[in-house]
Structures are given as C-alpha cells and as structure tokens.
Amino acid sequence: MFGTHFYNEGIRRLTIGFGQLFNNIIVQTKSSSGAIDKRMRIPLAYAPKEKFLVRLDQQADLQQDREFAVTLPRLGFELTGLTYDPTRKMNKMNKYKVVKTNDATKKILNFNYTPVPYNVNYSLYSFTATAENGLQIIEQILPYFQPEYTVTVNMIPDLDIKRDVPIILNNINYEDTYNGEFTKRRAVVYTLSFTAKTYLYGPMTNQGVIKSVQADMGTDTDSPLTREERIVITPNPTTADADDDFGFTTTITFYDDSKRYNPSTDTDE
Hints:
The protein starts with 9 loop residues before the first helix and ends in a 15-residue tail after the last strand. The protein has 2 domains: 10-205, STM4215-like (2-Layer Sandwich), CATH 3.30.2000; 210-254, no CATH class. It is mainly beta. Helix content is 11%, strand content 44%. A 6-stranded mixed sheet has the order 3-4-7-10-9-8. The protein has a 3-stranded antiparallel sheet with strand order 5-6-11, with no helix packed on it. 14% of the residues are buried.
C-alpha cells in the first residue's frame, strides 16, 4: 500500500478554487459629493495571518498614497487543517471508471475506488487601515454564503471526475488594533473561518478492456464441484473496441457424465 507514489492534486485544486472566490474584490473611495475618487482591486496572497502582522509592524506607516503592494487593504488565506468526516462515508468498493486511449490501437480502463470524505478548513484574513474599507470587503463576501457556497472542482482530470464542493462559512472574528499613534498605525482585521466538504482519492489503477466472459455452471455446490454447462460471451466482431457499435456472441457448451469437469482431478480445457 504505502511506498507507491501518487499525487492527484485534489487539495491543491481545492485551495486554488477557494482563493479564486476572493480574487476580484473591489474597494472604492468617494468624495464628499459622492463621486468615486479611487477604485482598487484588493491583492490576495496565500500566507498565514502572522506574516501579515509582522509586515505591518515593520512598516513605517500605512498611508494610502504609498505603493499598493505594501499598503492596506490586503487579503490573505491559508489552509488550517483537515478532519475525516464519517457522516459522508460511502461504500468503499465502488469504482469510478473511464476508458482511455493508451496508443493508436489499444484502449485501457482507468479506475479509482470510492474517495474518502474529508473536511478541509481554511481561514481568510482581511487587513484594512480603516473600518470603512473592512466593511466594504466583508459585505462583498457574506451575502454569498448562506451559510455555504458551492464550487465545482476538477478532482481527477484523467478520470473526468468533477465534484461540487460546498464551502461553509463557520464564523467571523473582528479585531481593531492600534500600535503607537492612531494616525500612523491601525489594522482592522477580519478573520473568516470556512470548511470545505471534499473527497480525497487514492491511486488510479488501469486494466485492459475485458473482451471475454466465461461462466461455469453446475447443479450443486457440494464437493467435488462438477461443471454441467459453460457459457462464453465475446464481442462480435472480436476486434471491436469500447467506443464501437458491436454485438455479442454467446457460446454454450453442455457436458455429459463422461465429460464433466472435476477441478480436484482434471485440468481445465
């Protein structure tokens, strides 16, 4: 089991999808007459909250006329944990299957067993220098979560598996911190906690396309087993592939007492 490398990038794709939800938030300021003076798209980065707070402590000030990349407002997010969710467990023997072309003439069946349900926790941080900007950001997020918002994630492209993942808003924390003089340093911080209910897939396996099925039938299950009838089903034509329009050929062979098969003493034909 362990030691065979595989990486489906399921959590990575989910994390990218989560970040994309907040990648186009706009903050604008207005003059006393109500005209829009400035309109800015809030930069988003994957980073822990502490990294932003240390950066703020190292800045000389947070004036809004400085370069946008080193001033507030900003958004940051991070993955904070994973937990198994037994309430969404399914039959682990089910398979997700798809036929793929391995080369010009051969097709194979790729499959993966039932995924494992996990809850992935994320935190989104909003850093602003004014309460007004913080409210603008929050009000562009909260109406979409009631309390969940569903995104579609392409979990395993090779198997064409796409899942609708609900992302649930759990809670919101608010901080209004000052360092030194109020006019020089202020950080209004909103922390939004989310849970994404996703599934994690194991390694993908492949096998050749089955082109012949054989069933041996007997009158009872007592030992020694004897074969009364053999049924063999093959595609017609035999060169047919998974995407072709084809039928089946069924061959039934009956065995009398002198030809019945005893697996304990005989060799299969």
